[in-house]
């Protein structure tokens, strides 16, 4: 027993209550927490990075070594020119250009449509407002995979198969619901006095939305941008169905051409997959602080 918890005979004779023993669990956790938390964080980080590490090592070994048995973690022979080979491939550059065009255009379409819709829905109370939001939410429940046959039939009738416009419209349509819902919550949370003060200063409805409301909803706009861009960048099924020209395929579809029944360039496939991750990582890192604010906004009232 420690000295702090011992009671003197004098206290016992006086009937005083002995000092309570401090809880050992919390105090022990506070001592080991600076050591345990970084180790746990490092372990979790390695779990998420493990697929990328394997892809990097497979990109740096010959394609025959990828399927060799027994498998080895490190390459038997290092091959350093894989990324240069992929970046000099004109087909890969065309796929990369298509992905950038489709993802950027889809994001812009979503913003152009969702911002006015969310502003009007969030700031104006009109009959059928809740029904409109419910219908918008229902559209989010449909998967492009389930509708791909109908989409192909519709775009075939419009002579839009094998065009960028078909993929851009599809990606924008399936990401519009998320953007409207998150932006209308931001617009609705802004006090009415802000809008009234802008009107007293002579701002019309459009000027108020552009000069006053949009800067206040920047975290929501950033959140919509990053989620729409990533969804359009990673879309596969619709692009596989609608894009038949090899030069117009996005990266998600085009890189599968490295491994076919006639040729198997596993090293180039893994290198192209890693390169395809880079634009999304750069975009995410550039607007990460705004994204965190957008995701946590509204959680505390």
Characterize the structure shown.
This protein has 301 residues and is mostly helical. The chain is built from 15 helices and no strands. Helix 2 (24-59) crosses helix 14, helix 5 packs antiparallel against helix 11 and helix 8 (164-189) runs antiparallel to helix 11 (218-234). Mean pLDDT is 85; it is low at 1-6. Its main location: membrane. Residues 13-26 have a biased composition (Low complexity). It is a multi-pass membrane protein.
| Structure annotation, total helices | 15
Rounded to the nearest angstrom, the radius of gyration is 28 Å
Q: Percent of residues in helical segments?
A: over 70%
Mean pLDDT over the full residue set: 85
Task: Find the structural class using helix and strand composition.
Answer: mainly alpha
Q: Please outline the major beta sheet.
A: none
In the predicted model, the low-confidence regions spanning at least 5 consecutive residues are 1-6
**Rough outline:** globular
Biased composition (Polar residues): 1-11
Biased composition (Low complexity): 13-26
Subcellular location: Cell membrane
Protein name: Carbohydrate ABC transporter permease
Secondary-structure blueprint:
Layout: H1 9-14, H2 24-59, H3 63-66, H4 82-87, H5 90-123, H6 129-139, H7 144-157, H8 164-189, H9 192-200, H10 205-216, H11 218-234, H12 237-242, H13 251-254, H14 266-286, H15 288-296
Helix pairs in contact: 2-14, 5-8, 5-11, 6-8, 8-11, 9-10, 11-15
């Amino acid at each position: 027993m420690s000295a702090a918890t011992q009671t003197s005979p004098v206290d016992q004779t006086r009937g005083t209550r002995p000092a309570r023993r401090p809880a050992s669990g919390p105090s022990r956790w506070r001592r080991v927490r600076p050591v345990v938390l970084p180790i746990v964080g490092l372990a979790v980080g390695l779990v998420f990075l493990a697929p990328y590490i394997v892809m990097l090592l497979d990109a740096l070994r010959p394609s025959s070594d990828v399927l060799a048995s027994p498998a080895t973690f490190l390459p038997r022979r290092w091959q350093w020119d894989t990324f240069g080979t992929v970046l000099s491939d004109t087909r890969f550059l065309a796929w990369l250009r298509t992905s950038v065009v489709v993802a950027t255009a889809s994001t812009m379409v979503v913003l152009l449509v969702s911002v006015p819709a969310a502003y009007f829905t969030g700031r104006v109370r009109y009959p059928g407002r809740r029904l409109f939001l419910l219908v918008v939410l229902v559209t989010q429940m449909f998967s492009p995979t389930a509708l791909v046959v109908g989409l192909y039939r519709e775009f075939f009738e419009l002579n839009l198969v094998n065009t960028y416009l078909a993929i851009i419209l599809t990606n924008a349509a399936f990401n519009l619901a998320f953007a409207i819902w998150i932006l209308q919550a931001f617009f609705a949370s802004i006090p009415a006095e802000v809008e009234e003060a802008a009107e007293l200063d002579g701002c019309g409805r459009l000027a108020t939305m552009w000069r006053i409301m949009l800067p206040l909803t920047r975290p929501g706009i950033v959140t919509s941008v990053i989620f729409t861009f990533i969804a359009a960048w990673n879309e596969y099924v619709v692009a596989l169905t609608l894009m038949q020209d090899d030069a117009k395929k996005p990266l998600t579809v085009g890189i599968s051409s490295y491994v076919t029944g006639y040729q198997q360039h596993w090293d180039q496939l893994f290198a192209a997959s890693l390169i395809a991750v880079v634009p999304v990582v750069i975009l995410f890192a550039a607007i990460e602080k705004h994204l965190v604010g957008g995701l946590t906004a509204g959680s505390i009232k």
